Amino acid sequence: MTAITKEQLASSIDYTLLQPQAGADDIAALCDEAVRYRFYSVCVHTRWIPLAADRLNNSRVNVCSVVSFPHGADSTRIKVSQAHQAIMDGADEIDMVADLAAIEAGDSKYLTTQIQALARVCHSMSPKVTLKVIIESAAFDVDKKMFACAACRQGKADFIKTSTGLHTSGGARIEDVKLMKDAAGDCRVKAAGGIRTAEQALAMIQAGADRIGTSCGVAIMENFQADLD
Amino acid sequence: MTAITKEQLASSIDYTLLQPQAGADDIAALCDEAVRYRFYSVCVHTRWIPLAADRLNNSRVNVCSVVSFPHGADSTRIKVSQAHQAIMDGADEIDMVADLAAIEAGDSKYLTTQIQALARVCHSMSPKVTLKVIIESAAFDVDKKMFACAACRQGKADFIKTSTGLHTSGGARIEDVKLMKDAAGDCRVKAAGGIRTAEQALAMIQAGADRIGTSCGVAIMENFQADLD
To answer: Mind listing the pLDDT tens digit for each residue in A55-87?
Structure first.
């Protein structure tokens, strides 16, 4: 396995809490842990963006939020408006669920146009906001995964993300990360969904993941630390 | 059990398809079945509202859509904007997921203000749009359910709805419908989540439900028919 430092691992983590009943104290704790462990970002629902942005004001930790999560079945207008509002509230990164019906149907025009519209919102900001597109890879066969990756490339997404972590088909899989890395072109790859240990996180990075989404960031770092000791 | 006619049962059903990979043909079939069985509405994701509104143009079947589904953790601004866009696209009814964190925390101001904001959008339309608020009743204890019902009343929701059908705690329960009916004041009650048979649907109506949300509308009607024969 490629050597990776503790700092590199930490700075690849979007530390995530999307549990709908999580409260202000939970979000504050998430932010404080992200600062302490030097994670890349915290990933929270839109209603918590102002709290997280405020809490992280004097840190290097970014605020990531989700759009049309986890179904992805909102209209393009609604997704664009949601992303715009999230950015105005303080989000640095947007993780949008792709339109799964369009992937299923092979509707390239719908899928690509929607990603382009979101990319336009994100990339017209200064500094630019990062757009990640979740393709729920475990739910689709190889051809449909490739099709979805092509749409992400054409639509100018910054990242292709494996999973919401909530789909019945499952979360991030090594083979999907490899496939997505091959098909991603200029897009980076975020592995998310079911990543709970340092071993899993490192395997995803080894397979090509540039970012890791996980609610187990602290456990992963403590785990990694223990392996080094 | 109170006698209920086939027509009464049919006209209480929101015939629902929120599967994220469902395609245009599935939505068209949903609409056609809703017309044939005289259901109250079809309930679809926002991206399908124009298709459903168009398909149901010359029928009495209404178009219902969902806001912040299923987590309910979007900011009030985002929920308001999503509801407004859904209405502009042709929705007659809005099923919004309440802010579960605010129910959990007992934050009456946040919860009520948000419901009021959504009610204002829906009720300022002519004709008025119906607002249903989903409180995910199986996830909360009796006190929190009562608290959520009070916020729905104060916020002027038209309906309190039991469940998204996707929460790990489960869907509609008879005892919750009874409790909600008692606590609902002027609000009506919609039972949804796991209702798959005519027997279940009738038991919910018997317990006080004014509306039934189900993806099994056709099976329920055929089932009811068979019981009468």
So the answer is: 999 999 999 999 999 999 999 999 999 999 999
Find, among A20, A42, A95, the residue nearest to A215 by Cα: A42
Could you tell me if B28 and B4 are in contact, meaning their C-beta atoms sit under 8 angstroms apart? no
Contact indicator for A132, A119 with CB cutoff of 8 Å: no
Angstrom distances, CA of residue A207 to CA of A2, A3, A8: 10, 13, 15
The answer to whether the beta carbons of residues A151 and A115 sit under 8 Å apart is yes
Residues of A designated catalytic: 95, 161, 190
3-state secondary structure (DSSP) of residue A103: helix
Interior angle at CA B14, CA B189 and CA B174, nearest 5? 40
Chain centre to alpha carbon of residue A42: 10
**ipTM of the prediction greater than 0.90, yes or no:** yes
Residues A109 and B117: beta-carbon distance below 8 Å: no
With beta carbons under 8 A apart, name residues in chain A contacting B82.
Answer: 74, 78, 81-82
CATH superfamily of the A6-228 domain: Aldolase class I (3.20.20.70)
Read off the tokens for B196.
Answer: 């798959």
Q: How far apart are CA B153 and CA B168, in angstroms?
A: 26
**A112: its two tokens:** 């690509």
Cα gap B30→B43, rounded to integer Å? 9
Summarize pLDDT for A1-15 with one digit per residue, the tens: 557 999 999 999 999
Residue from A147, A71, A187 nearest B48 by CA: A71
| A73/B45 touch (CB, cutoff 8 Å), yes or no | yes
Q: What is the DSSP string of A153-185?
A: HHTT-SEEE---S-STT-S--HHHHHHHHHH-T
pTM more than 0.90: yes
| B190 given a catalytic annotation | yes
- DSSP 3-state of B18: coil
Q: For chains A and B, what is the number of CB pairs under 8 angstroms?
A: 98
CB contact under 8 A, A73 and B48: yes
Q: What is the C-alpha separation between A72 and A222, in angstroms, rounded?
A: 34
Tell me, what amino acid is at A229?
D
Tokens 């990319």 appear where? A119
Instruction: Parse chain A into domains and list their residue ranges.
Output: 6-228
Residue keyed to tokens 């996180």:
A201
Mutation to test the B interface, candidates A47, A63, A168, most B Cβ within 10 Å:
A47
Residue B161 annotated as catalytic: yes
CA distance A92 to A89: 10
Q: What is the pLDDT of residues B8-55, one digit of tens each?
A: 999 999 999 999 999 999 999 999 999 999 999 999 999 999 999 999
**Phi and psi at residue B74, to the nearest 5°:** -85, 155
